[in-house]
Amino acid sequence: MQINPGGRLDTKDVVGRDNEINRYWRVLERQGLVISAERRIGKTHIVLKMRDECRSGYLPFYQDLEAVHSIPDLIRSIYHTVQQSLSASSSLKLKAHIARWSSLLPGKVSGIDLPSGDSTRQVLLSQAFDDLLGIADNEVILLLWDEFPLMLHNLQRRERPDSAIQLLDHLRALRLRHADRLRFLFTGSIGLHLVLRSLRAAGNTNDPVNDMLSLTVPPMAHQDTTDLAAALLEETRAARPHIPDLASRIASEVGGFPYYVHHVVDQLDQLQRPPLLEDVSAAVDKLVYDPHDPANFNYYVNRLSSYYAADEGALALVVLDTVAGLSSPVPIPELLNLCRHRDPSLQDEALREVLTVLAEDHYIEPRKSAAGTTYDFRWQLVKRWWKARRS
Ligand SMILES: Nc1ncnc2c1ncn2[C@@H]1O[C@H](COP(=O)(O)OP(=O)(O)O)[C@@H](O)[C@H]1O
Ligand SMILES: [Mg+2]
After folding, report:
1. Where are the domains of the chain?
2. CA triplet 144, 150, 151: central angle to 5 degrees?
3. Atom 8 of ligand 1: nearest residue by CA position
4. Which CATH code of 1.10.10.10, 3.40.50.2000, 3.40.50.2300, 3.20.20.70 fits the domain covering 300-390?
5. Is the model's pLDDT at 184 over the cut of 90?
6. Residue 186 above 80 pLDDT?
7. Ligand with an atom nearest the CA of residue 13
8. Is there an atom of ligand 1 within 6 Å of 6 CB?
9. 43 lines ligand 1 (CB under 6 A)
10. How far apart are the C-alpha atoms of 30 and 245, rounded to whole Å?
11. Cβ of 363: how many Cβ atoms within 10 Å?
């Protein structure tokens, strides 16, 4: 298995995630699904594994929507994705569909380039879905839409809020009309709730995905994390008999975040000698302190300015800086006091709201304790970076 932090892995190299995948299939039997979690926790690889090891009865299409900035982009992406996945498929059953789809493609895709008003776009989008539903007779069309909230965010910025709202309404109507023929699985690194909140501020009041189930991708199970670390260590100069101990130490230091596991092993690989147990902590420290930030921790700071309103982002920084400085979490009233130490003008209610948003956004999580609810970073490794760099 290749050490490859951030790269696209072969499905056979995607370790674990079977519990999550089973759960997601169970949900898809009855309704659509929104899965969200921080960037690089492994959403894309989960979804690609679901596509590549798809359950019978479904025809899956995966689309990365990160670069989609307009409705015409989305329509083009649908036609291209279907074209590509059908032609890559060896299924005899699909051959007839491929021929039909290929004959549709040039006309449809060039039509989308015409300057078009809202109503024309809606018609083209409807046609794209009609064409899509026409592919399968018995299977459910499963659309795996990766980074869906980011597309909405881009639509809202590049086109208008209306454009994102109309799309959400359109998709909801499609889900209702074709409940037994069409399923959506959306993933998101920015919470859909953040985008919906700003759409609501722009005048949209309904709840356009409340027919879908929202789930957070959990950390990878400890055993799977250890197995991943062990498989990656095989690629290094690590002495075989030391691999189980090294792997278990990596899993304990990093937690179930596979991207960081790849990074830590990559650091150990760069030693050019067999790594020892104490090298693991040093490798983690290297990631945390390296000014070039190879593991991209800065992303957690930067995204606050991209997706939070300015005053809310500032408040979020105060809360996170405070929480990062605590060696053990404290109950909410004490946390609010500590935040006010940094800025006496802060209001309790605004702080409470930002705690909720940060928890929904996977920065921190609430925990039950004898003294009351406390909040701590969801990832101790991120906390370590935050403390080292900001507190
Ligand atoms: N199940 C897994 N097994 C092995 N490595 C993984 C797994 N999930 C994620 N990774 C590692 O983490 C990186 C980021 O995963 P990715 O699926 O792109 O995250 P996301 O889509 O949540 O941003 C991958 O490039 C890979 O290095
Ligand atoms: Mg992804």
Report:
1. 17-216, 222-289, 300-390
2. 70
3. 42
4. 1.10.10.10
5. yes
6. yes
7. 1
8. yes
9. yes
10. 43
11. 24
In this structure, are residues 192 and 168 in contact, taking their beta carbons and an 8 Å threshold? no
pTM over 0.85: yes
Q: Which atom of ligand 1 is nearest to the CA of 15?
A: 3
* Residue 6 pLDDT: 93
pLDDT at 52: 94
User: Would 17-216 and 300-390 be classified into the same CATH topology?
Assistant: no
Mutate to test the pocket of ligand 1, among 63, 259, 264 (most ligand atoms within 8 A of CB): 259
Residue 262's Cα: distance from chain center in Å? 18
Whether 115 shows a pLDDT value over 60: the answer reads: no
Other C-beta atoms lying within 10 Å of the C-beta of residue 84: 12
Architecture of domain 17-216: 3-Layer(aba) Sandwich (3.40)
- What whole-number distance in Å separates Cα of residue 32 and Cα of residue 142? 9
Phi (first) and psi of residue 189, to 5 degrees? -90, -30
pLDDT digit string (tens) for 189-234? Answer: 888 888 888 887 777 667 788 899 999 999 999 999 999 999 999 9
Q: How far is the CA of 167 from the centre of ligand 1 (A)?
A: 29
pLDDT score, position 103: 67
More confident call, 124 vs 91: 124
Distance 8 CA to ligand 1 centre (A): 8
Token pair recorded at residue 330: 């404290």
Q: Which ligand is nearest to the CA of 35?
A: 1
Q: Is the CB of 378 under 6 A from ligand 1?
A: no
Ligand nearest to the CA of 2: 1
**Element at 358 (helix H, strand E):** helix 348-360
Q: Which atom of ligand 1 is nearest to the CA of 17?
A: 1
Answer whether 265 contacts ligand 1 (Cβ < 6 A): no
Give the mean pLDDT of 347-361. 93
Distance 13 CA to ligand 2 centre (A): 16
pLDDT digits (tens, 9 = 90+) for 2-28: 999 999 999 999 999 999 999 999 999
Mean pLDDT across 21-46: 96
| Any atom of ligand 1 within 6 Å of the Cβ of 175 | no
